[in-house]
Amino acid sequence: MATKNGKVVLITGANKGLGKEIGRQLGALGYTVVITARDEQAGGAAVAELVAAGCDAHTVRLEVTNPDHIASLVSYLETTFGKLDVLVNNAGIALEWDGKPTNADKIRRTLEVNLIAPYAITEALVPLLSRSDDARVINQSSMLGSMGAAESMWEEIGGFMAVGYSTSKAGLDMLTLIQSKTLASKGIAVAAAHPGWVKTDLGSQAAPMEVDEGASTAVELVTITREQFPHGQLRHKGERMPW
Ligand SMILES: NC(=O)c1ccc[n+]([C@@H]2O[C@H](COP(=O)([O-])OP(=O)(O)OC[C@H]3O[C@@H](n4cnc5c(N)ncnc54)[C@H](OP(=O)(O)O)[C@@H]3O)[C@@H](O)[C@H]2O)c1
Asked: Is the CB of 110 under 6 A from ligand 1?
């Protein structure tokens, strides 16, 4: 299938929130956008919005922890586009902000969605990413996974740091660093984004940042020149963030 600017971007968990906004911004720049959603109807509604805004947008059903869905996604991309240029691992959960104590089950489920799924999805898509002349993987991380921040800013942010969520994002940061090294020989560039504290269902309406600003860090990592790409780094609004 022909694409507007020749680039195909896949964004997970993009029926709402940051994922949908990243899709909207990249679609406006001429990227062909494939947004995934675990709920087919929600994916359909989001893609209809993006198409109405003039984007070349498509949707695929993806429960990120389901290996059969991941395999179907790979076949869809292979058949429809024959390659993938950018993967944004955006889907995420924060089960522990429900006012109740965390527990092993919540931690396990959080790690499954926020860490193991991005690993599995990236690995499954390596062959299609390898066909791009400028392949990138952007992992949507969080400052709440920063060990430096936990150590030095506990008074300010310790209340938001839950074991499952923070270790999942710390793990995602390490995955980013490892894959930036191991996938380099395949021509795949990898970096992580901290969007900021953003008004979404996950971030809540108490967050100071609007969703368009929150999406900008991931969008910049998709659009920055290959020469300037910050391999293996965690970035926020054009700056490197410490781990
Ligand atoms: N908002 C913030 O302040 C903030 C700050 C730092 C990092 N982040 C990160 O940014 C990413 C996007 O968050 P957001 O704020 O946009 O949250 P959001 O509005 O709640 O969106 C989360 C998305 O992930 C999807 N998702 C969750 N579990 C999934 C699963 N098992 N399979 C498939 N999709 C799944 C959700 O689908 P459903 O609609 O079906 O639930 C939704 O599309 C997350 O990784 C989050 O950790 C957000």
From this structure: no
Query: Which of 93, 137, 211 is the pocket-test mutation for ligand 1 (most atoms within 8 Å of CB)?
Result: 93
What is the pLDDT at residue 1? Answer: 53
Tokens of 225: 């020149």
The answer to the question of residue 86 being in a domain is yes
Cα–Cα distance for residue pair 123/116, rounded to 1 Å: 11
* Measured torsion, CA atoms of residues 192, 53, 209, 195, in degrees rounded to the nearest 10: 0
Give the residue among 60, 57, 68 at the shortest CA–CA distance from 43.
Answer: 60
What pTM was computed for the model?
Answer: 0.98
Task: Report the pLDDT value the prediction gives residue 243, as an integer from 0 to 100.
Answer: 94
Atom 44 of ligand 1, residue of closest alpha carbon: 92
C-alpha Rg value of the chain to the nearest Å = 17
Q: Report if residue 80 sits inside a domain.
A: yes
Give the chain's domain count.
Answer: 1
Q: What's the CA-to-centroid distance between 18 and ligand 1, angstroms?
A: 7
* Ligand 1 pocket: which of 59, 63, 95, 202 to mutate (most atoms within 8 A of CB): 202
Domain membership of residue 114 as a residue range = 8-241
Answer whether residue 3 is part of any domain.
no
Domain membership of residue 176 (yes or no) is yes
**Which atom from ligand 1 is nearest to the alpha carbon of 207?**
3
Residues of the chain whose pLDDT is less than 50? none
Q: What CATH number has the domain bearing residue 97?
A: 3.40.50.720
